[in-house]
Amino acid sequence: MEKGTFVKLFSVLIVFSLVFMSGCTGGDPNAPPADYEASKPTLDRTQYYPSSSPQSDDNIIKYKQSHPFEISFIDVGFGDATLIRANGKAILFDAGPSAGASEVRAYLREHGVVSLDLLVLSSNDARFISGAAEVLRTVPVKEIWVNKQSYSSDARWDEMMSLASDSQIKVVEYGDKYEDGNFTLTALNPFPGTKNPSAAMDSIVLKAQYGDFCAVLFSNSEASGAAGNDAGTVFGGVDSRIISAPESVKCPVLRVSAHGSGNSASFQLLDAMGPPEMAVISVGQNPPENKYPEPTLIRRLLLREVDVYLTDKLGDIVVKSDGSSYEVETKYPYGTSYAQFINGVGYGGQLYYN
Q1: Residue 39: what pLDDT?
Q2: What's the average model confidence in pLDDT over 9-33?
Q3: How many CB atoms lie within 10 A of CB 150?
Q4: Range 197-217 average pLDDT
Q5: Cα angle vertex 239, ends 235, 242, to 5°?
Q6: pLDDT digit string, tens, across residues 71-110
């Protein structure tokens, strides 16, 4: 497929339907029933926006965006969902797990989002995108970005695509952009023609730029091939490809990949970014291991003097910018006890989850 080409949705649905009817459901617990094609979910958005005109909803009327550019890292538990707002446009990067769909839905409504200009689905990882079905039932979506992987045997993906009947689907690769005035969203991953050992390495990575301010947003593509005590040296991984490519990643804000896996955010990436001033990790209780974020990752960030923000401790995290400076708001305070806890995990061997 030629880069930047829009894929007609009906052709995607035909492929998905043929594979689905062949019985390839993958045994997923969230999979639709076997007679799914005969009982497709319908779009009934009145339960979320009861008014015939969503713009008359009190939430829409009352919400006022304080800065022209905002990135909201929504607390969805063990998953990722990021709302980007710029120049009146609303973009959702991943939608979290299905268990956190109500949080995403409520956040959109409370913050005046009646439609999405763009929905980015980084991969087919349930922790990142399974909540997208509820989002698609809730608000209309103009365009959807997907990566180059084929998920035609994934019934969850088939369900989401069936709900996206009014959306344009675009397969993106490195360098593809969404532009609106002084706002640019650039795909930093996946790379064209690259054969990766795992689907996660093709997960979409974004750079969100507004004026002179920018943020690098990872999903679940790790710095594969990391070595060393702090997993800080990378050979051939996603990090090294991104920092070797033409697009600058010198940005003050980083969303760390894979819930703070020890094999994410290499020293090379941090140094190429400046290092960043703050790193956001979207995480929650993740039984049975309860291992994320890993101390090696926290220590690596602290060694580069990066402020660490975690959604499970601070709640929703919002970065606001006028295109030059920026400020951060959190639901719960980033205080002394929180900073001591982070240092204890990174330097003191303290367990994150007890």
Answers
A1: 39
A2: 38
A3: 14
A4: 92
A5: 115
A6: 999 999 999 999 999 999 999 999 999 888 889 999 998 9
Give, in order, the Cα–Cα distances in Å from 262 to each of 10, 222, 297, 298.
41, 9, 5, 8
Let me know: does 210 contact 180? Beta carbons within 8 Å.
Answer: no
Task: Give the total residue count for the chain.
Answer: 354
Q: Which helix (H) or strand (E) holds 244?
A: helix 238-244
Q: What does residue 308 show for φ and ψ, rounded to 5 degrees? A: -105, 125
- φ, ψ dihedrals at 157, nearest 5°: -65, -40
326 CB-contact burial (10 Å; exposed 0-12 / middle 13-18 / buried 19+): buried
Mean pLDDT of 113-126: 92
Q: Do the Cβ atoms of 205 and 219 come closer than 8 Å?
A: yes
Query: In the CATH scheme, what is the code of domain 6-30+65-347?
Result: 3.60.15.10
Question: The tokens 């400020």 sit on which residue?
Answer: 327
Number of Cα atoms under 13 Å in the Cβ half of residue 324: 0
pTM across the whole model: 0.83
